[in-house]
Amino acid sequence: MIKRHMEEKQETLTEVTVDANEREIPHNPLLEISGSLIKGMLVKYWIYFCAAMFFIVSFNGKVVVYKILYIMLFLFCVALYQVHYEWWRRILKYFWLTVVSYSMVVLIAVYAYQFKTISGFLLLTLGLSEEGLKDLGLEQYDTVELFAKILLPSTFLLACILQLRYFSEDFLKITDLSNIPIKHECTSGSKKKTETQVYLLADMLKENIWKLQNRLEANELHGENQTTSAKTENTPVYETMGEAEQEKSGGEPNKWNLVIDKLASLLLQLLEKFHKTQVLAWRVLELHILKIVSTWVIWITLQEVSLMNYPFFVLWVFALPYPKLRPHASKICTVWSCVMVICKMMYQLKFVRPHDYSSNCMQNRTYYHDSLDELLQKSVLYVAPVDPADWCGGLRKCGDNVLPCLKNHLTILALMVIEVTVHHHQLFYRTQNQLTPPVTGIIFDTITREHLDDGLLSCIKYFINYSFYKFGLEVCLIMAVNVIKQRMDFYALLHGCWLIYLLHRRRRKAVAEVWSRYCSFLASVMTFQYLLCIGLPPAFCKDYPWRTSRWTIHSNLIKWLYLPDFAKKPDASFLLYDFLLLLFASLQWQVFKDENKACVRIEAGDNVEISRELDPAALSQYSPVPNFIHCRSYLDMAKVVVFGYHFWFVLCLIFITGTTRINIFCLGYLMACFYFMLFGSSLLLKPVKTILRLWDYLIAYTALVIVMKNLLAIGACAYLDKLLRNHCWLIQTFGMFCTIPGYDLVLPEDEKCELPENEAGIVWDAISFTFLLVQRRVFMSYYFLYVVADLKAAKILASRGAELFEVKLKKVVVLRLEEEKKSLQAMRRQMELIKLKQKKFDSLKQKTPSPEGTAVDQSAKEQQLLDPEEGGKKENEDKKIWWQPWVTHASMIRAGSYYLFETDSEEEEEQGPTEKREEESPKKKTAFQLAYEAWMSSSKSALRTRKQDETREQGKKEEEQLQLAGEVKLEFHEEKGEISGTEENLDESESIIERIINTIKFTWVFFQALLDDTTEALNSLCKNNLDIANVLRIERCMLWREINKGKEASPDTILQYYNLKKSQQVQASPYGGNKMKGTQEDQHEDTLECQQIPRRGTQLPHQSSASRTPDEVAEEINGDEAGEKREDEDSIKEAAPEMTTPLPSCETKDYAVSPSAERSKEAGRPLNEVPVIMTASELLLNRMFHDNELEQSDKFYQSLPRSLKLGFALYNAMVSKSEMLCYFVIILNHMVSASVLTLILPILIFLWAMLSIPRPTKFFWMMAIVYTEITVVVKYFAQFGFFPWTTKLYCGINAEEPFVLPNIVGIEKKDGYVHFDLVQLLALFFHRSILKCHGLWDSKGVNVSDTKKRTFSRSSKNQESRGGLHEDEPGSGAWHLFRHHNPSGSVFRGRKTASINRGKTQKKEARKKWKLFRKSPISKKKLLKQKMKQLILKAKKLVIKIALQIYRPIRQFFYDIIHPEYSPVCDVYALMFLVDVINFIIVIFGYWAFGKHSAAADITESLSEDQVPEAFLVMLLIQFGTMIVDRAIYLRKTMFGKCVFQVVLVFGIHFWMFFILPGVTERRFNRNHVAQLWYLVKCVYFGLSAYQIKCGYPNRVLGNFLTKSYNFVNLFLFQGFRMVPFLTELRAVMDWVWTDTTLSLSSWICVEDLYANVFIMKCLRESEKKYPQPSGQKKKVIVKYGIGGCIVFILVCIVWFPLLLMSLVKSVAGVTNQPLDVSVKITISGYESLFTMSAQQRNLIPFSPAAYNELANQYALHPSAMQFIVNYSPEDIVLAKIKSNASLLWSISPASREAMMDELSSSTAVYINFHWTILRNASLVKNVEASGKHTVRYEEKEIREQIVQMLNGTRKEPILLPGVVPRYLRATAGAEARTAHRLQVAHSHKPQDIDKMAFFRNITIKLQQLTLNSSSGQVTEWWVIQEWNPTCSGNACSKNVELIIYNDKVSPSSLGFLAGYGIVGLYMSVVLVIGKFIREFFNGISRSIMFEELPNVDRILKLCTDIFLVREIGELELEEQLFAKLIFLYRSPETMIKWTRESKEQ
User: Fold this and answer.
1) pTM above 0.85, yes or no
2) Which helix (H) or strand (E) holds 1718?
3) Which residue has the higher pLDDT, 262 or 1378?
4) Helices in 1022-1071 by DSSP H: which ranges?
5) How far is residue 1344's CA from residue 802's CA, in Å, rounded to a whole number?
6) Any bridge partners for residue 1718, and if so which?
7) What pLDDT is attached to residue 1383?
8) Mean pLDDT of 602-620
9) Is the Cβ–Cβ distance between 721 and 746 less than 8 Å?
10) Pick from 2, 321, 1230, 1851: CA 20 to 30 A from residue 1927's CA?
11) DSSP 1821
């Protein structure tokens, strides 16, 4: 009707004629859908509402009989539903009928009872008691109360009638399990119906929208055509409707229709997901309902322990292991819970009186021990009367609300109903959808074992399905440990015994055989324990025998034994943990049964353990799992974490377990952890049974520790007090403490034995046990074999990374030397050409030769006569011969001319062709370049550029894949066309919305680009390590392929593969030689290596085989010695460039040849075509091995999200610097510990590890690991409580003492004593794994073999002289890493002399023995002496031998460092200098931390007093001195001096910081944070210094390190470096002093200044190229206002700075300066002061805000006064109250008194002076006192006479003196305090106004007299001064004088130095100086244009670097000539313009 009304209204509005057919009311689908939906929901869920109402009616209010009948009906229905579903359905209709009838009867009865006649009939006639009727529920109420009482039953009755009348039939239909409708179609009917309804609603909505649009269009047309007729008005309406219909049907789709269709599809998807979620929830509930029900029921029975609850407990305990009992258990529990509910409700009736049958047991007490008081207080027998109903069934009175008493059993009933409902629902669902129940309890039906390795999601789903199937046994063992942990009593001990027994069986099948007995044991023990919890009925008043016997048993022991007791009941909650164990054990029993079913094994996989003899070599034959090592998916990454790294995580956990608790058991954990950490890698390579046996031992040890701690709990919980008194060591050793609550522990008060409270418990043991079991499963997995295989391959390639690293190092060194040589040759060639041209120039001027020309001519002639090679030497020798005295240094440097620049173009022409390279494609723009482009143009342009970069990169990838040049070129042309086409659109204007969208897009793109740039930078930082890792990954894959083929893998396999691939490439291109894919740089590097190494006259590694015959080479290829395989490989590779003969056939030898070697033999290629040793990057460029898994892995890593890529880049950076991580952790550990134990490793780092070439050896890292473990053990033993230093008293006294033995050794007792040691161990083992993974752990193939060769050659040469003694030879690979040019004979001279001396001593001993035979027998005394001498001699020899064995390797180690064969030079001096500067700053600002009493001193105060502290001065001078020495060593490049300096500094600093400094400061180092920071920074210096020593000094020291690259960062840092006062000058002078040069100091500084300016210009030019600005584009407004506005603001601030400072410093930052004392004095001129008084503390009252506001209101009409007041805040104004009586007596002599009186009588006027003095805080102002005076002249005779009368004693009344005291004073910062005269305003003469506004106040004075002694007549006098109040009269008008003082704010101390200058001073000193500096900057621009606006400064920069180069090489004459060239260049503007032009290419 509403719709029809709306349609009629629409017709009247639009005046459109409509057919009669259209007026029919269509059906409304919305109402139909809503109605069917609501009806379906009511049919389905109304019964739940009725049940809820049933519940509310039954339990609302107090319990009465009719409510009990209600609940009985309800319980009957529920119980029948659970017991028999079909019977329940049959009687359901009759049940509702019964309920309705009964409800009517109840309502009628309650209502009828309200009538007096009926109630009287029942009470009087029938004789029923009123209490009995109330129990029935009959009671009379008021009208309102009656309505409230019958409202709820009436509502319930209505609900039941509705259920019976409307919903019952439909409900029975949908719940009929025997007649379930089957869904035959693939898509269910309900789904189709839902889709139909949704689309119907969508169509209806579309139709309504369409009508609305038509109506709006019609309204618009109606408004436009108001003047037209109705006929013509109707036509456009039809046309518009027709158009709309056309648009709806055939035209473009309406956007609202699209939106509605999208919403409809989303709604359907949402409904589908909701349906799937619903199905999943029902399935999860079906799987776990048994666990939920059983656990909840058991928990309820444990909360309410009683005999009637025992059936629940027993049923469910036995129903779990025996599934056949489960249905019966549910039914019985349902019925029994109904019985319990009825019993509890009946017990609430009033006729039940518990007091009548309760027992009182106080009479029956028979005890034989002293625990009677405890029992009387705690025993249930004696606390209150015993109600037997409570023990029987937990029956008790519940008061008005019975529901809390019934909730437990009602919950049980509800759980049973839910359980049966879930089963019925799932049966209905499966029958309706024709589904079969799953074989196993799974959630995802489609996931089986086959899908486990498909992906991470499939893996998660699989483990959701089968996690317990796979790991149930481990879960059960963990739960058993949890039971032990929670209980720690006798039954926990039984569980521990079972645990050990199960672990002892080891094999899964063996455990399965006894599992049924284990489940039976658990169930039986639980039921027995519950009986113990119930105990005997207390109503019998009989106590247990352990309480009544003569032998006393402690209550704690009773609790531990879990015996029943009335005083200490057994804790029933323990049984919950037992039940959880039983639950999991029952599930595992089912798993054991399922394992033998074929269907389960097909779906879930088998649980058969793998063979313990399994080896990774056989994986290819029977492995059921794929290889995951190469990480082709996220799942593979997770597998690598679990199977590769979980082992080390478990070891860390064991370490934490061992060190967290201090007891003897945890020591075993530590030992096991250290053993597995040290030997775990080698153990993993053995068959599984080896490590499994050891791992099982560790698991067994953990279980044994858990059981032993449980056993020791008897002593810890029951007899702790006795152990504390007699056996404290036992408690400390085993860490005994009771961790279970509920025990009554009586602890002694003396506390001599400290309890190890934090050392007890088995939490960490349980955690370790858990992860040990998990790791055991890892070992038993097939996946783990792939990890073992990878470890084996890594072991084979243990030294491969070291080889690649060394090859890279060699090539870098050779390239550097070649570049320097080329540069020097080019300069020499250029100078020779210059001299030849100069000769021609001077030959024209022979008639008038100038001194300079003659010199040049002469040198040119000499150059012609000499050979080109020896010309330079001759010139150096003859440059200052005696017959050419005019050739001086000054003439040389000023002899520059144009001829010096004429050769530059020729040189560039020569170098041009060689330096031309192919045009590089434009690089991808960085994030900041994109931001710059967005800033300069727009976000849209930056987005387009980013898109072009990505398209270009994609094109490059496709080009690499396709390698089709034509296609690629075509694509790039197309791309350029697109780009040019799109650039035209950039100028189009953007709307604001588009701009915002583009900005948001650009922000996201910028963030992505920033992540990409960061990732790329990190990867470039560790490129070498990444290349080596990739090569080793490929080679490990090659070895894995060989293992899969059944072959034995070895390093020769890789060499033979490379040779075979190379030979195939040579055969493919026989004329191409070495035509492998690579860049020209790599081939150039190879050529350089082949050419440069012999030229240097040295022999690099692997080159010794070049002198061998080819047969020897072939023999070594197939040699059997594994230790020389890598060396032989490299020999072949190095021999290639020098051997041209073909490789002879291997068949000439007598040993077998591998198949790959035969293939290489058949190739028949010459040996010189075998590639030389290639670096890792070259091997990756010339990749020969391709594998599908590796390629998939690469693709996966490339497809990772940016955040993960960044994470991997950070990890790779950490891996590449892992040794730095180790160093940092070791140093950090030492900083925190600051002990002798941790001091060793830092010193070894700086003097051994960091100096080792090329890296620390395996020996160092193993030594560090072992030493750390020893340190941990020592610290661990020192934590035991029986040591004296572990007591709290000792720790409290000596915790801060630096030189107490435990503190300085590092064994003090503290929390977290090994946390940093654990981190240190982790870092060391992480680094060890990295070295092994990268082939850097074992360097025997690289360095040790070379050392052996050298040792062998030296020993063979000196074999005769040494006498064949080899044991003293220092040939260890740990100490010799690199060979050297000329091993000095002095190094080995000691051996010769030692062997000769040894021979002499042997001869002497032989002679002595021979004399013994010839001589007569000697006395025993002499024999003893001789033996003692011999022993001393032997000991001396042994000591010397040991000392030599230590000394010689150290000497050889440093000799190798000082005389390296080759080294990759570096220059880190600048960083060392920066670190020293930071330390310098730390010393200055942290001075207080380096002295004994310096913490309280202030360095600025000391300096201001011209007192330089000695400690401060010494530290500064030492720091500065070391910086000077370091610079000198750097400039002289003396390696010996640097080594000595490093050793002295390392030992000195450590000795000072850790032994001297704590003694000086009396503080421990680890409490001195400034010293820690200083030491950390110094360690950075040590590391840089060691790196400098290891790499060697560079041949040339090129300027500043900041000038190595040209960017803004370097520019700003360089400018900052130059701004430091004296730093640039000091550096220049030191460089000049310690560098060989011909330049004077001024010339040197000139070159430095020119170089600095050129560098600045180079940075600016590079930034202009990097961030170009388009021509013709105006500067943006934001740029102009941003930069220009800031400059204007700064200049304005500088101009007005003094005024701003002086005005703001006090008002904004000013400090309140309140007075401390205010003193006043009143005098008559020329005489003693009359009155003196001061106000202090409480008499000085600051103004409150209210008083301040009152003052402001008072002067509101006076602008000048207000202007003064507003300058002060309330706290600045102080009210000083001056007391009336003078503080001093008036002591005046009688003569003066008479004279005073005479003068006052005779004079014409009297002068009264009022003085005031204000005292301030000395720390705030310089002038502490401020004073002032006010004088008043009185001419009135009356006042003079009154004063004279007062002095005579004739006047007693006070004298009024008007206008004496000023009301307001102003205290400034100066020495004068004036009156605040601006508050002196005009006012009326009203008394009130005078009192408020008068500035000068009237006072009264009075001379007070007091007679001390009447006999003597002595009188004491003083003056009393009071302020007179004009508003009153009489004596009350006087009051104390009050002064209001306005205190000016003072500037804070931090700004006092500026404020002290004043405004004028600041203008003169600051503003004018800054203005002058800025003016100089602007004025000098025009004069510097010539030298600063240079387009291209590359040539000038090269000229400067050439000067540095020739200076370092020693070509000093060349240095002069180049300097002359530089000077002339700056003198000649024309040459400068030519030289700084942009090149033609640019």
Assistant:
1) no
2) strand 1717-1724
3) 262
4) 1023-1044, 1051-1068
5) 12
6) 1735, 1814
7) 35
8) 74
9) yes
10) 1851
11) -
- In sequence order, the β-bridge partners of residue 1720 are 1733, 1812
Q: How far is CA 1048 from CA 622, 791, 1043, 1118, in A?
A: 18, 15, 6, 14
- Position 1730: which residue type? L
Contacts of 987 by beta carbon, 8 Å cutoff, 6+ apart: none
| Token pair of 1234 as six digits | 């600051």
pLDDT in tens, 662-680: 788 888 888 898 889 888 7
Q: How many Cβ atoms from other residues are within 10 Å of residue 742's Cβ?
A: 12
Lowest mean pLDDT among 1146-1160, 1432-1446, 1492-1506, 1992-2006: 1146-1160
CA-wise closest residue to 1588 among 1464, 1503, 1497, 1684:
1464
Q: Among 521-530, 639-648, 1031-1040, where is mean pLDDT lowest? A: 1031-1040
CB atoms within 10 A of CB 704: 16
What's the rounded Cα separation, in Å, for the pair 270 and 267?
A: 5
Omega within 30 of 0 (cis) for the link into 1254: yes
Residue 1712, both tokens: 């309140």
The C-alpha atoms of residue 1954 and residue 1962 are separated, in whole angstroms, by 7
Whether 391 shows a pLDDT value over 80: the answer reads yes
Phi then psi dihedrals of residue 332, to 5 deg: -65, -40
Task: For residue 1576, give both structure tokens.
Answer: 């950390």
Three-class secondary structure of residue 1305 per DSSP? helix
Cα angle, residue 990 at apex, residues 988 and 992 outer, rounded to 5°: 170
Q: Rounded CA gap, 1554 and 1547, in Å?
A: 11
Secondary structure class of 1560 (helix, strand, coil)? helix
Q: What is the dihedral of CA 643, 648, 653, 658, to 10 degrees?
A: 140
For 1828, the 3-state DSSP assignment is: strand
pLDDT greater than 90 at residue 771? yes
Contact of 392 with 306, CB cutoff 8 Å: yes
Residue 926 has pLDDT above 80, yes or no: yes
Contacts of 1669 (CB under 8 A, 6+ apart): 936
> Two tokens at 1399?
């021979």
Note whether 1051 and 796 are within 8 A (CB): yes
Q: Tell me the three state secondary structure of residue 901.
A: helix
pLDDT tens-digit map of 616-650 = 666 656 667 888 888 889 999 999 999 988 998 99
Angle (CA) 1418-1420-1424 rounded to 5° is: 105
Q: Which residues of 1746-1782 are buried (b: 16+ CB within 10 A; e: fewer)?
A: eebeebeeebeebeebbebbeebeeebbbbbebebeb
Per-residue model confidence as pLDDT tens digits over 800-854: 888 888 888 888 888 888 887 887 787 777 677 766 765 766 675 554 444 444 4
932-988: per-residue pLDDT in tens?
Answer: 888 877 888 888 888 888 888 888 777 766 654 444 444 444 444 444 444 444 445
What is the distance between the alpha carbons of residues 518 and 582, in angstroms, rounded to a whole number?
A: 9
- Of 787, 1349, 810, nearest in space to 1123 by CA: 1349
SS3 80: helix
DSSP state at residue 68:
H
Cβ atoms of residues 529 and 575 within 8 Å: yes
For 1310-1332, b where at least 16 C-beta lie within 10 A, e where not — what string?
A: eeebbebbbebbbbbbbbbbbbb
Tokens 């408004």 label which residue? Answer: 223
1002, HSE (Cβ side, Cα atoms, 13 Å): 24
User: What pLDDT score does 1094 carry?
Assistant: 35
DSSP3 helix / strand / coil % (the chain, rounded to 5): 70, 5, 25
**1342 and 1274 Cβ atoms separated by less than 8 Å:** no
Q: How far apart are CA 1460 and CA 1457, in angstroms?
A: 6
At residue 1908, the 3 state secondary structure works out as strand
Q: What does the block give as tokens for 432?
A: 């309706």
Q: Which amino acid is at 772?
A: L
